[in-house]
Structures are given as structure tokens and as C-alpha cells.
């Protein structure tokens, strides 16, 4: 009896389990889109809830699993055993296993309801950044209504500032998710949802559409780029300075001419200061300052841009950007033009 008591204690010991869980969390925290590496108060609050539920679930698993294992071994049928005493119903046990789950659910429900309401509206501060997010198949538009800026797929924000988002969809249901900053929020046609976050450290935070929305759902990525306040303002000022685009050289001028000619880029894309004011595809006014193209799929390099211009669907299946009959010279000129857009 003493021996099996020790055995039970060993089975019940959660020290190895706790270190296994800590190890797993450490590993998951390394991946770019990890809820285990929160970088702001919203994600931190949500992780606290997740951890509470996780540890309660682990506790239940250990207790129930241990009792089950112990019982199966200790009371297993041996050859020649008589039929055990037949029992039907046990009021005490039934009360216990009804009351314990009720207590557990209350322990989970109280902080969950508190935080769900707490996170529903942003902190009451005046100094906020407002951003209108619009989901498209399969990219993201980011509009800064107070700053007069429109950009795509890379959401620049100042570190430490409350960012208020309104989320709308141009077509189908998407979901806006930056795991290190805040949980998912659905982006629904004909409806405006809201959410907020604060990025407490400068850096790039990876985001991803989290609601299946068609062929290139998995390719509907984006980034939140959190910058120190002065760098963010430098970017804002740079964007505001665009009035009339003047090409720096002949190649850029040729690229601009192709961009603005009938049946090409300008019908869908806007570039401030040029004749291009299409509203179907991403705004390209600050194209050269973006780190990626094709909704976060490719690094923004001349090789990748050429690859994209040659055959968009080969890069992003289902992409609405048509395959234009562009010669290598055309692509070279367009590339020169696009990289002059800072
Ligand atoms: Cu948009 Cu999935």
C-alpha cells in the first residue's frame, strides 16, 4: 500500500510537466506569429486568459489521467477473481463531480467576462492613431483618415501609442490577426468592427488573414511596423510631400508613361501626384518604402517585382491583377518608376 502511494505521488508530480509546458511555450514564442510572445497590453491580457485556462486544463488532465491509470492498474481483473461488488449511484460522488466543474467554470468565466468587456473599448486617452482597415481578396488597405495617407499591406504605427482600428471588407469575410499584438477580429462586408492595440516595442509584427476567404487566403498576409515616434513622423511627412511626381530620369519617365497608358496599371492603382487614381488595387504612392510586395508574399526586390509583373497569378493564385503583355524593357522601366515612389 505504501509502495503504491509513492507511485501515485510520482505520477501526480507536475514538475516535469511544468517544465515541458514552459519549454513548449518557449519554442512557440520563437515563431514569428506567436501568441506566446505578446508585445502589447491586449495580447498580454489575452495570453493571461489563455494561460489560466491552459493550466486548469493541464491540472484536470493530470488528476483525471492519474486516477484512471492508477485504477486500471490497481484494480485490474486477475485470473480467478470473483465478480466485484455491484454498485449503482453514489450521491456524494455525483455532487462532488458536479460542484467541482461549476467552481472551475466560475474561475474561468469571471476573468474572461471582465477582460472581454475591458478590451472591447480602447483606453480613454486623447492621443491615439486612427486607422481604417479594408480587407480585399487578397490584400489589405490601410487608411489614416487624420493624416490623409493611404497605404497597403504594411501598417506603420508609432511605438507605445494606442492604435484604434475600424475594420471593413470590400468583398467577403476576412479576419485581421496580428498574434503578437491582439487577437483576431472578423472583417465583414457591410459592417464596421473595431479593435485596438498598442505595440510596446519597435519591430515588425507579422499578420495574417485568419478567415478562409478564397484561393489566396493563405497569401493574404501583412505586417505591422512599429517605429519610434520620430521615425513614424518622418514617414508621415514624406508621404504628405507628394504633390506632382516628376521623373528623375528617362527610364523612370518611360515607366510612368507605361503605368499611365490605357489598359495598364493606372486603371486599378493610385499613385499620388500622377494620373493614376485607380481604387481597385493597392495604393502604390509609397511603393519603394515597402519591405514586401504581393501582400507580404515576396521581399520587395527588383527581381521579385519583375517576377510579379510577368505573371501575378504564378506568385499569388487567383490574384486579380491581370497578366499584362509587358516586354522585358517595359518591366525594367516600370521597375525604375515604382522604385522612385518613396
Ligand atoms: Cu482574407 Cu482569408
Uncertain stretches: none
- Round the Cα radius of gyration to an integer and report it: 28 Å
Query: Which structural class do you get from the secondary structure elements?
Result: alpha+beta
Oligomer: single chain
Number of helical regions: 9
Bound molecule kinds, no repeats: dinuclear copper ion
What number is the mean pLDDT?
88
Strand fraction equals 15-25%
Principal-axes shape call: elongated
What is the count of β-strands? 12
Helix content: 40-55%
Termini separation: 77 Å
Order of helices and strands: HHHHEEEEEEEEEEHHEEHHH
The main β sheet shows up as: 5 strands, mixed
Task: Write the SSE topology.
Elements: H1 2-12, H2 15-30, H3 41-74, H4 91-120, E1 128-136, E2 139-144, E3 149-152, E4 154-158, E5 162-169, E6 174-178, E7 182-187, E8 193-197, E9 203-209, E10 221-227, H5 229-240, H6 250-259, E11 292-293, E12 298-299, H7 302-310, H8 312-315, H9 328-338
Parallel strand pairs: 1-5, 4-10
Antiparallel strand pairs: 1-2, 2-3, 5-8, 6-7, 6-9, 9-10, 11-12
Helix pairs in contact: 3-4, 6-9
Bound molecules: dinuclear copper ion (CUA).
Task: List its salient traits.
five-stranded mixed β-sheet, alpha+beta, elongated, single chain, binds dinuclear copper ion, 9 helices, 342 residues
Describe this entry's structure for a reader.
The structure is a single chain. This protein is an alpha+beta fold. It contains 9 helices and 12 strands. α3 (41-74) runs antiparallel to α4 (91-120) and α6 packs across α9. The termini are far apart. The site of dinuclear copper ion has 9 residues, from loops.
Amino acid at each position: 500500500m505504501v509502495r503504491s502511494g509513492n507511485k501515485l505521488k510520482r505520477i501526480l508530480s507536475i514538475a516535469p510537466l511544468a517544465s515541458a509546458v514552459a519549454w513548449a511555450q518557449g519554442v512557440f514564442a520563437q515563431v514569428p506569429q506567436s501568441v506566446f510572445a505578446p508585445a502589447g497590453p491586449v495580447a498580454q491580457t489575452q495570453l493571461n486568459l489563455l494561460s489560466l485556462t491552459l493550466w486548469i486544463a493541464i491540472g484536470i488532465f493530470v488528476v483525471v489521467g492519474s486516477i484512471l491509470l492508477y485504477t486500471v492498474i490497481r484494480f485490474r481483473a486477475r485470473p480467478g477473481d470473483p465478480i466485484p461488488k455491484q454498485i449503482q449511484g453514489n450521491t456524494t460522488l455525483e455532487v462532488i463531480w458536479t460542484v467541482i466543474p461549476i467552481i472551475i467554470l466560475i474561475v474561468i468565466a469571471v476573468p474572461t467576462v471582465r477582460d472581454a468587456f475591458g478590451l472591447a473599448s480602447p483606453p480613454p486617452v486623447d492621443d491615439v492613431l486612427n486607422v481604417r482597415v479594408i480587407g480585399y481578396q487578397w490584400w489589405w488597405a490601410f487608411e489614416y483618415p487624420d493624416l490623409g495617407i493611404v497605404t497597403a499591406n504594411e501598417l506603420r504605427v508609432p511605438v507605445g501609442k494606442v492604435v484604434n482600428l475600424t475594420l471593413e471588407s470590400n468583398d467577403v469575410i476576412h479576419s485581421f490577426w496580428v498574434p503578437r499584438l491582439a487577437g483576431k477580429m472578423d472583417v465583414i462586408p457591410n459592417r464596421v468592427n473595431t479593435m485596438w492595440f498598442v505595440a510596446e516595442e519597435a519591430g515588425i509584427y507579422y499578420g495574417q488573414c485568419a478567415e478562409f476567404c478564397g484561393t489566396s487566403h493563405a497569401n493574404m498576409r501583412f505586417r505591422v511596423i512599429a517605429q519610434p515616434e520620430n521615425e513614424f513622423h518622418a514617414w508621415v511627412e514624406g508621404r504628405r510631400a507628394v504633390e506632382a511626381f516628376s521623373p528623375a530620369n528617362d527610364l523612370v519617365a518611360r515607366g510612368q508613361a507605361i503605368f499611365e497608358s490605357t489598359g495598364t496599371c493606372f486603371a486599378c492603382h493610385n499613385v499620388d501626384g500622377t494620373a493614376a487614381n485607380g481604387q481597385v488595387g493597392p495604393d502604390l504612392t509609397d511603393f519603394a518604402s515597402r519591405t514586401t510586395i504581393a501582400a507580404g508574399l515576396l521581399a520587395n526586390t527588383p527581381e521579385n517585382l519583375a517576377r510579379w509583373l510577368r505573371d501575378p497569378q504564378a506568385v499569388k493564385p487567383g490574384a486579380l491583377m491581370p497578366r499584362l503583355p509587358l516586354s522585358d524593357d517595359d518591366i525594367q522601366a516600370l521597375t525604375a518608376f515604382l522604385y522612385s515612389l518613396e
